[in-house]
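Notes from hallway chat w/ T.B., transcribed later so I don't forget. T.B. wanted the structure written out for a chain they're using in a teaching module, and asked if we could keep both sequence and structure tokens in one place. Agreed to drop them here.
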Amino acid sequence: MLTLALCLRPALAQSPEVPIRLQVALLARAVEYDRSFPARARERVASLIVVRANDPDSVRVGEQIRLELGALDSIAGLPHTERVWGYGSAAELASQLVKAPPAILYLSTGLGEEVGAIATLLEGISILSVAVSARYVPQRAVLGFDAESGRPQLLVHLEQARRQRVAFRPEFLR
């Protein structure tokens, strides 16, 4: 059984609390409950995986995310593309988002200090920010993953979701 947590509690570890394969499977299910997702994705779901370029662990986790997303047949019934990008600054990320706006922005490990700036940058943009670490959700990533007693949980930052035009159906939030 999947538990949805709407609370914003800090996580203890920097590494992913939930295996990447399970995160991606949960993400693929969660986007089906986002009323804004079809308009955001259009005909092909683009995912931008943001890594800390000078952090080997962040790059490794980002590559895992790319491989797991790439293994999906479809996302919300649509074909998809994944791209890993090395974070330098919020301004550089803004430039990337203008060039090729993704439907999903997946944040790898090593970005904890940058999540607030990234969240501020994403306000007003229709994009689903997904955090590999539960500790990014209190910093305003829209969706994150945690485990409690071995059971996966989805964490949602509702206010940031509104700011990023992510509109989850009520049945998802129950």
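Follow-up for T.B.: The beta strands are 3-5, 45-52, 80-87, 104-107, 128-131, 143-148, 151-156. Might be a good example for the class.
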